[in-house]
Design brief:
Layout: H1 2-10, H2 14-32, H3 50-67, E1 71-72, E2 78-80, H4 81-88, H5 93-98, E3 101-103, E4 109-112, H6 117-126, H7 129-133, E5 137-145, E6 157-165, H8 171-187, E7 195-200, H9 204-219, H10 227-234, H11 247-254, H12 265-280, E8 286-287, E9 301-306, E10 315-322, H13 325-328, E11 342-348, H14 349-359, E12 362-369, E13 376-382, E14 396-400, E15 405-406
Parallel strand pairs: 1-5, 7-8
Antiparallel strand pairs: 2-4, 3-4, 5-6, 6-11, 7-9, 9-10, 10-11, 12-13, 13-14, 14-15
Helix pairs in contact: 3-8, 3-14, 8-12
């Protein structure tokens, strides 16, 4: 039928039309012959040895999450754009600049998911009450998409793993998820290479009052603030100025009022309980008052595991509590999931893999017994990895027993 319509509009016979289509196909084949196809900008091919580390990181997280009572959930890679516009805000950089969004053939505005927290929350809210009753602790692993400027450790398609804990209001639920993150990193042997930083955003009521105070403070320093920070103040998001990397902004932030200075006693008691529980669990941490989240539904504890080995992108694993996301996505107050209290932890997996490779910088290539004693000669080959080419290898020798190898 389509061919008949083309013939009618063009005035060509069936034979002529077929010859022209065949000629066009042959011409295209010649034009493509000999061309090599490159990957799309901002994506990556995951090959050994990185792929081995990916599997190791994901499998370790799945095992640890299962030990903490979390069950795995899968959500679609494509979602309605409105889901993230509502959860992240239409003015956020993710929605405004970084989402891969398009209009489907039926007119639906669709996108590739930029993160999984909103998707997991949507899935739980859409499930039956019986299912939701047994889904308080969920974890996921999968690819996310953000069209940001490609840079070291940042890709437009990237892997994340995360854990979400629903319906638990106690401070212990915050600490449980932080402990999961710490135990996960310890299982990878990275506990001595990361630092846990925590902060509190208090309740929404206390934060609204602080929001007004902070806006007034920054309005008195608008001429000295960077362009990005001025835009954040003008757009009603002064909290994001607190984590600015601009040196001039940081000097102004040091003089800014602190949220805990005006927080109600109930919020301060909860904040102290989180710190006491972490100390009781032997999890080292430092309080960072500039650690914030730029979304209104976050509340109380926020946290990050950072490292000094990755340059400016130093966050390895992060998360926080968000009491208000369920209501933003349409949760009814009389449902079993009315108070969707979620803890989120995520990790850009390639970042973790590079840390693992940096830690395991060599392997034993051979082990030769020595004839005159019980020691062994170990041939050790350092590993060198580069994004563009191999940097070469060299061999070194260590002599000693299996208990302690000495140069």
């Amino acid at each position: 039928q389509n061919l008949r319509q083309i013939m009618t509009c063009s005035g060509l016979t069936r034979g002529t039309l077929r010859r022209r289509l065949c000629h066009a196909s042959t011409t295209a084949s010649k034009r493509w012959a000999g061309q090599s196809f490159q990957r799309v900008k901002g994506t990556q091919d995951i090959l050994p040895p990185i792929s081995t580390e990916y599997s190791h990181v994901i499998n370790t997280f799945q095992r640890k999450a299962g030990q903490y009572g979390f069950k795995q959930v899968w959500t679609p890679v494509i979602e309605k754009s409105e889901l993230f516009a509502r959860s992240l805000g239409t003015t956020s950089d993710v929605v405004h600049k970084e989402m891969f969004s398009f209009e489907d053939r039926d007119g639906t505005h669709t996108c590739l998911r930029p993160e999984a927290t909103a998707s997991v929350t949507r899935a739980l809210l859409a499930s039956s009450p019986i299912t939701a009753k047994h889904c308080h602790n969920l974890f996921y692993a999968g690819t996310m998409f953000r069209r940001e400027r490609p840079q070291k450790g940042r890709y437009r398609e990237f892997w994340q793993v995360g854990a979400e804990s629903f319906g638990q209001q106690s401070a212990w639920s915050d600490v449980q998820t932080i402990q999961l993150g710490f135990d996960f990193l310890s299982s990878l042997g990275l506990e001595n290479h990361v630092e846990l930083q925590i902060n509190t955003l208090c309740s929404s009521e206390a934060r609204q009052q602080y929001h007004t105070t902070l806006t007034r403070f920054f309005q008195g320093h608008m001429d000295a603030l960077s362009a990005d920070s001025r835009m954040r103040v003008e757009n009603g998001n002064p909290l994001r100025v607190l984590d600015s990397k601009n040196k001039t902004d940081q000097e102004i932030v040091r003089e800014a009022p602190r949220l805990v200075d005006s927080a109600p006693q109930l919020d301060l008691d909860r904040w102290q309980e989180v710190q006491d529980l972490l100390a009781a669990a032997n999890v080292s941490f430092s309080v960072n008052p500039t650690l914030v989240r730029g979304l209104d539904y976050y509340a109380h504890t926020v946290w990050e595991f950072t490292t000094d080995r990755l340059g400016a992108q130093n966050a390895v694993l992060a998360g926080g509590r968000y009491d208000g996301l369920g209501s933003l996505l349409g949760s009814k107050m009389n449902t079993p999931v009315c108070s969707t209290l979620t803890l989120s932890s995520f990790i850009e997996t390639r970042t973790m893999c590079m840390l693992l490779i940096a830690r395991r910088s060599f392997f034993v290539a051979s082990c030769l017994p020595l004839l005159d004693n019980d020691d062994f000669l170990f041939l050790v080959m350092p590993l060198h990895f580069s994004c563009n080419s191999c940097q070469g290898c060299w061999l070194g020798c260590w002599c000693g027993s299996f208990g302690a190898i000495t140069p």
